[in-house]
Design goal:
alpha+beta, eight-stranded mixed β-barrel, 3 helices, 8 strands, single chain, Sortase, Chain: A, 21% helix, 32% strand
């Protein structure tokens, strides 16, 4: 059941890499010889470098039950979050031991999180592989509550967005989704 999801996710990654490369790093030109597409396919099949830069495409966040599939990039400030969800700096990367943090705006990429439930699947697809997490719970915290992003010994994932979901202006709270990798023991 996950094979079509992974194949479609890799296709989306390839399209996103081409789009971002064409719009931010590469000159505006057609791809008559398929070089950009070949580069995207190569990136989708090989591990990313250990050093990543703000705005660099890292993969796709998917929550199948919600029909959510958004690209995620490195960084959690204004510029990267205009491109999609953002990997929160100084947290683990998905698939690695520790707490991987990914944030996005409530009024764009992560609005669907208002419907998330415990036991929902979260799939993070990267060039290094696909990582499956299961939601263990949610909470609402103040914006300065950093304990939700603390390091963990297990492979965990924390999704962060502003709360309330329908609020004009800067939201006063944060909506947090906690998830643990399949096969990891929660501490």
């Amino acid at each position: 059941m996950r094979k079509p999801l992974i194949i479609s996710a890799l296709a989306v990654v390839a399209i996103a890499v081409c789009t971002i490369a064409a719009n931010t790093r590469a000159p505006q030109f057609a791809d008559p010889d398929g070089a950009v597409l070949r580069y995207a396919e190569m990136r989708a099949m090989h591990k990313t470098e250990q050093v990543v830069h703000s705005g660099e495409l890292l993969g796709i966040v998917q929550i199948p039950r919600l029909g959510l599939a958004v690209p995620y990039v490195e960084g959690d400030d204004d510029a990267p979050l205009k491109l999609g969800a953002g990997h929160i700096t100084h947290t683990a990367f998905p698939g690695h031991h520790g707490n991987a943090g990914i944030g996005a705006h409530r009024d764009t990429c992560f609005r669907a999180l208002r419907f998330i439930k415990p036991n929902d699947d979260v799939v993070i697809t990267t060039p290094a592989g696909s990582y499956d997490y299961v939601v263990t719970g949610t909470e609402v915290v103040s914006p300065d509550d950093n304990r939700v992003l603390q390091k963990t010994p297990a492979k965990t994932l924390t999704l962060v967005t502003c709360y309330p979901f329908f609020y004009l202006g800067h939201a006063p709270k944060r909506f947090i989704v906690h998830a643990v990798a399949y096969g990891s023991k929660q501490s």
